[in-house]
From TrEMBL:
Superkingdom field: Bacteria
Domain called Protein CotJB: residue spans: 75-155
Keywords of this entry: Capsid protein, Virion
Signal peptide: none
Full protein name: Spore coat protein CotJB
InterPro entries for the chain: CotJB_dom, Spore_coat_CotJA
Transferase recorded as keyword: no
Pfam families recorded: CotJA, CotJB
Amino acid sequence: QKGVVFVEMQNMHLAITSVPVQNWGELYDQDEALKTGTVFKDLDLPFFAAEQVPAAASSVMESLKSPEEKEFSEKMLEIQKISFVMDDLRLYLDTHPDEQEALTMLKDILKRRKQVMSEFASRFYPLTMDCMAELYEREPSSACYCWQKGAAPWEGVYC
């Protein structure tokens, strides 16, 4: 059967794709970037089904949250936004390693993400091992392995 597949493939015309080189341009702020799915305005192109997707409705459950739950959601959303921008910049820098403006922005985002993650870990629970290491640096005598303080990702904890 391998020979049959090979013969069939020999008779096919292969397509070659071309992707234009992305240039550094105008950027969305982190709120808009998370909503549109890209930090780069030039990449925010029409999608055939986008008009059919209903806007998110305000949840009644949101209004019933305690102040601590609201703070938790706000901090978690901030982490998601910062992390999204960080990932988009990392992908851009993978193909444009000499783009100094992108590198400078990435350095700022990394510093901000570390700060917000640290604040979240202090207030609620650590999200990464780096956050735990930071907690142990501040409290060397701590005997807490803090993962059990927060919900596991599959338990539906999100913004």
